[in-house]
Amino acid sequence: MAHDRATSQPEIYKKASVFGMPGYEVDGMDVLAVRGVAEQAVARARAGEGPTLIEALTYRFRGHSLADPDELRSKDEKEFWMARDPIKQFSAHMIEQNLASQQELKEIDRKIQTLTEEAVEFGLSSPEPNPADLYKYIFAED
Q1: Per-residue pLDDT tens for 10-41?
Q2: Which of 19, 42, 104, 114 sits a CA distance of 20 to 30 A from 122?
Q3: Do the domain assignments include residue 84?
Q4: Nearest by Cα to 57 from 7, 14, 92, 13
Q5: In whole angstroms, what is the distance from residue 105 CA to residue 95 CA?
Q6: Helix, strand and coil in the chain, % to nearest 5
Q7: Under a CB-based contact definition with an 8 Å cutoff, are residues 56 and 28 in contact?
Q8: Pair 13, 25: CB distance under 8 Å
Q9: Predicted structure pTM score
């Protein structure tokens, strides 16, 4: 169901006031904008001012799951949002500002790919969890 049909207040950040905290909406496709809002929230928390609700508006590039072929969105819509891919946008920003070279970013991508592959292999080669541990660490133990 579409989010705006499932709630009386589709702007989630506005719900923060009900809980006595500030709420902010941020363009989740802009890495630096998200960082700025997060820094403010962290500063508030460290100053003892409590939590902050951040609603980062993003676009989902794929279907909901492996079973979702993602056929309901148009090719034009997907291309529009793909041009705003936050990783690509931030990479371009880093290069433009001379904060990293293309080669350095490629090396970071290689490291990420290696770590991801290692994590998947670890998970696949690990033994199945013991069913007796299902409720472990859910409740405080004496």
Answers
A1: 899 999 999 999 999 999 999 999 999 999 99
A2: 104
A3: yes
A4: 13
A5: 9
A6: 50, 5, 40
A7: yes
A8: yes
A9: 0.76
